[in-house]
């Protein structure tokens, strides 16, 4: 049996063992080998070790290769060979004359703060003139008054003469000192009148007298007048041009209007008129007659509220509603040919006589 096993099973040799190991190992991976003290590679472990080691290093631990390290000297050397042509313009724009001129045209001295060179102001100029131009400054000019505008020096005041020269009219002089005024023989109550013969203003008695005439021109709105004596003037609307008017400004006056077509005369008190609309009527029964037109339009502050025409009274959308007090204290009669409407309940404290139709809703 022992010889049979030797025949069936080959003897061990290193080559046979390594071959068998390689064959078996080819069917395995690290998943078949438990991790011992020598740890397997993982990305997390490598990154952690790299970060830990890298934190202890700087460029001094890495030899310079073909990618050179930055130095000030190297930057300065490269920059010295460049200009703005080598740098593309970004949001920070380059200077150009056109850009400066365009921006400068929109500016004024208000955009430039005042420095040591001061701006002009009237106050500064006046102050500088007052400080500079003194008597000694003028005296130093050695100006000859005889050469100024052809006026001799005697025409100018001296310090003793005050504001004016002797040859000029002084503030204390009278009207008679004027060259074209002759006051010889003037008496109380006289006036100065021009004498064309002498060319002077001379004393004369004032001309007095009555008004010679009061005339009323066409379209003046007045009538009357006379050439002498007492004169009466009256307001005459017929003596007015078409489109003109007469103004009455007191509540005690009456404006008389005349219809020139039929001679009708109308009397209006100013208290009856306000802002061109009927505001009040005189005591008693007053009639308002529309002789030319289709009706009356009512407005409040420029807004139409109602129209009264042949068909009755019509309220607009801004005219509100018809209203009455639910207590009737007046005394009145609904005539036989009349109809009326009330909105109840109604309390009648006066006397209402219904001869026609009275409906209470």
Notable characteristics:
17 strands, 361 residues, three-stranded antiparallel sheet, alpha/beta
What can you see in these coordinates?
This protein is of the alpha/beta class and 361 residues long. Among the domains are: 130-173, no CATH class; 174-208, no CATH class. The chain has helices at 2-8, 14-25, 43-54, 72-79, 97-104, 122-132, 135-139, and strands at residues 191-195, 200-204, 220-224, 233-240, 255-259, 264-268, 273-274, 277-278, 295-300, 303-309, 312-315, 327-328, 331-334, 339-342, 347-348, 351-354, 357-360. Strands 9-10-11 form a three-stranded antiparallel beta sheet, with no helix packed on it. The N and C termini lie far apart (142 Å).
Outline the secondary-structure elements.
Blueprint: H1 2-8, H2 14-25, H3 43-54, H4 72-79, H5 97-104, H6 122-132, H7 135-139, E1 191-195, E2 200-204, E3 220-224, E4 233-240, E5 255-259, E6 264-268, E7 273-274, E8 277-278, E9 295-300, E10 303-309, E11 312-315, E12 327-328, E13 331-334, E14 339-342, E15 347-348, E16 351-354, E17 357-360
Parallel strand pairs: 12-15, 13-16, 14-17
Antiparallel strand pairs: 1-2, 3-4, 5-6, 7-8, 9-10, 10-11
């Amino acid at each position: 049996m022992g010889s049979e096993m030797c025949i069936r099973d080959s003897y061990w040799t290193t080559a046979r063992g390594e071959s068998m190991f390689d064959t078996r190992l080819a069917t395995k991976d690290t998943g078949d080998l438990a991790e011992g003290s020598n740890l397997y590679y993982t990305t997390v472990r490598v990154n952690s070790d790299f970060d830990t080691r890298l934190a202890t290093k700087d460029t001094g631990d890495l030899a310079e290769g073909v990618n050179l390290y930055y130095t000030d000297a190297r930057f300065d050397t490269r920059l010295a060979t460049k200009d703005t042509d080598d740098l593309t313009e970004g949001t920070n724009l380059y200077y150009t004359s056109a850009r400066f001129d365009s921006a400068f045209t929109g500016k004024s001295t208000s955009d430039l703060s005042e420095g040591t060179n001061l701006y002009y102001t009237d106050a500064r100029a006046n102050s500088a003139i007052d400080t500079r131009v003194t008597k000694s400054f003028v005296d130093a000019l050695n100006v000859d008054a005889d050469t100024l505008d052809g006026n001799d020096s005697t025409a100018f005041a001296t310090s003793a003469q005050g504001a004016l020269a002797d040859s000029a009219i002084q503030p204390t002089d009278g009207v008679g000192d004027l060259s074209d005024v002759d006051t010889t023989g003037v008496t109380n109550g006289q006036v100065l009148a021009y004498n064309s013969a002498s060319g002077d203003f001379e004393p004369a008695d004032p001309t007095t007298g009555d008004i010679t005439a009061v005339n009323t021109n066409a379209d003046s709105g007045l009538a009357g007048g006379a050439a002498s004596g007492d004169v009466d003037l009256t307001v005459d609307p017929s003596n007015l041009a078409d489109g003109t008017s007469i103004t009455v400004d007191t509540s005690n006056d009456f404006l008389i209007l005349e219809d020139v077509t039929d001679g009708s005369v109308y009397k209006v008190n100013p208290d009856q008129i306000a802002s061109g609309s009927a505001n009040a009527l005189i005591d008693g029964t007053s009639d308002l007659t529309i002789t030319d037109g289709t009706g009356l339009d009512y407005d409040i502050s420029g807004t139409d509220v109602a129209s009264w025409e042949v068909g009755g009274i019509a309220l607009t959308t801004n005219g509100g509603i018809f209203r009455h007090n639910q207590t009737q204290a007046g005394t009145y009669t609904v005539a036989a040919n009349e109809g009326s409407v009330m909105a109840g309940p109604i309390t009648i404290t006066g006397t209402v006589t219904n001869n026609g139709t009275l409906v209470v809703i």
